[in-house]
Write a structure and sequence with these properties.
By secondary structure, this protein is mainly alpha-helical. It has 21 helices and no strands. Among the domains are: 65 residues, no CATH class; 86 residues, Leucine-rich Repeat Variant (Alpha Horseshoe), CATH 1.25.10; 62 residues, no CATH class.
Length: 420
């Protein structure tokens, strides 16, 4: 009991020492603080040189020992903390052990499945025996998922009859039920796995669910639904764009385009989406028309110049320039004065892509009227791209001494081949 009181006294003394009570005038740090705690327990506490601190510590010790409720609470807190730490340690160790077991089992199953699948595909005389072995091994959900993953990995790199053999095995083992169950699962990440598996195996039984996910608030789920619909379409791989209400992000547009190239799909007539209410779909259609250089859409593209959305108009100007549609230039001239700064830049870039000396007068007016340097640069480039007529006009303007124009410096730099 006496030893306990001594330790409590020491604890309170050290506490106040740490909080800065040593800053009190006339007080010095007790020499006993520098000694080992075991030595202090047997030392005479009168050796301490701070009477004020010791008296204060004694009062706190007395108050503490007279409060059994406080002691009980502290004991409970300490025991609870120790129990919590031990529980967490056990959970961490068990979880780590479980992960390791699953990893080892996965490596074993992958190796076994690969061998069985190779036997099934390339050793026809053992096909029935191998099918029975696969049925026995895939006897639980986790094993079946590993088998599905292996079959999908194989189907990516295989074509023709062998790929159809994998699909046939997929149905014989009843794995399509697993994929359909995931496609209709209440968790989105399970839906993603289900959509992907059904798309690879060309199963359309969950198309209704996939279509519902096209306008999901979850971007990942929405993209997977789009990819699945491209692969599961009968004729038009982009038919789902008619149903799309959510914005089509740049990444989604890139992915859809890559799918078309990667799987050698026939590009549809993208002009069918020019009237879509989804402006991102309209912009995507314009870009695809330009990319695949789909002709016979000039009039439809010019009509888009009157679209209420400035970004759509800008994309239309860019697409016309990329496709070299000269028939669109007069309409651009007409709209140029009322357009935004960004769209005026794009119009001038289109004139540079489709050079025609008939429009030198318009470009000269842009040089004279516009005060923005970037607009003047784009107009000068467009004039230069017309060839000899445009270059001659630029040289004449540059050397004119009748009046000085700020664009004369711009012309000099544009005509300098070392810069542009």
């Amino acid at each position: 009991m006496r030893l306990r009181q001594t330790y409590l006294r020491l604890l309170f003394s050290m506490l106040f020492f740490a909080l800065g009570t040593q800053a009190i005038q006339g007080l010095e740090a007790p020499a006993a603080f520098l000694q080992d705690s075991a030595e202090y327990s047997t030392a005479d506490t009168t050796q301490l040189e701070s009477p004020f601190m010791l008296r204060y510590a004694d009062r706190l010790q007395e108050r503490f020992t007279k409060s059994p409720l406080l002691i009980t609470i502290l004991y409970i807190v300490i025991l609870y903390s120790i129990a919590t730490l031990i529980t967490l340690l056990i959970i961490i160790l068990l979880n780590r052990s479980k992960i390791q077991r699953e990893q080892n089992q996965k490596e074993y199953l992958l190796e076994e499945y690969q061998q069985l699948l190779m036997d099934y595909l390339f050793e026809q005389e053992r096909r029935e025996e191998t099918l029975e072995d696969l049925s026995q091994v895939a006897n639980n959900h986790m094993n079946r998922q590993f088998l599905i993953d292996q079959m999908i990995d194989l189907s990516i790199n295989l074509k023709g009859e062998i790929k159809e053999t994998i699909k046939d095995l997929y149905f014989k083992l009843g794995l399509e039920r697993d994929s359909l169950e995931k496609a209709h699962h209440r968790k989105w990440h399970m839906n993603v796995k289900g959509f992907r598996e059904l798309a690879f195996m060309n199963i359309r039984d969950a198309n209704e669910k996939i279509i519902q996910s096209l306008n999901s608030n979850n971007e990942i789920l929405r993209m997977e639904a789009q990819i699945a619909m491209v692969r599961l379409s009968d004729g038009n791989p982009y038919e789902f764009l008619h149903l799309l209400e959510k914005p089509l992000s740049i990444w989604e547009q890139i992915t859809l385009h890559e799918l078309l190239i990667q799987h050698n799909l026939k590009a549809p007539a993208f002009k069918q989406w020019f009237n879509s209410e989804n402006i991102t779909v309209v912009m995507f259609a314009l870009q695809m028309v330009s990319w695949f250089n789909q002709r016979g859409v000039g009039k439809e593209m010019i009509r888009i110049f009157d679209h209420e959305n400035g970004e759509v108009r800008c994309t239309a100007y860019e697409a016309c320039g990329d496709m070299g549609l000269k028939m669109a230039l007069p309409a651009m001239i007409k709209l140029y004065p009322e357009e935004s700064y960004t769209n005026r830049l794009e119009i001038l870039r289109s004139f540079a892509k489709v050079p025609d000396e008939k429009y030198l007068k318009f470009l000269k007016e842009v040089l004279d009227r516009e005060e923005d340097v970037q607009l003047q640069i784009e107009a000068t480039k467009a004039m230069e791209n017309t060839g000899e007529p445009g270059i001659s006009m630029l040289i004449k303007l540059m050397k004119s001494k009748s009046e000085y124009k700020n664009y004369q410096i711009i012309i000099r730099h544009v005509l300098d081949g070392r810069i542009y």
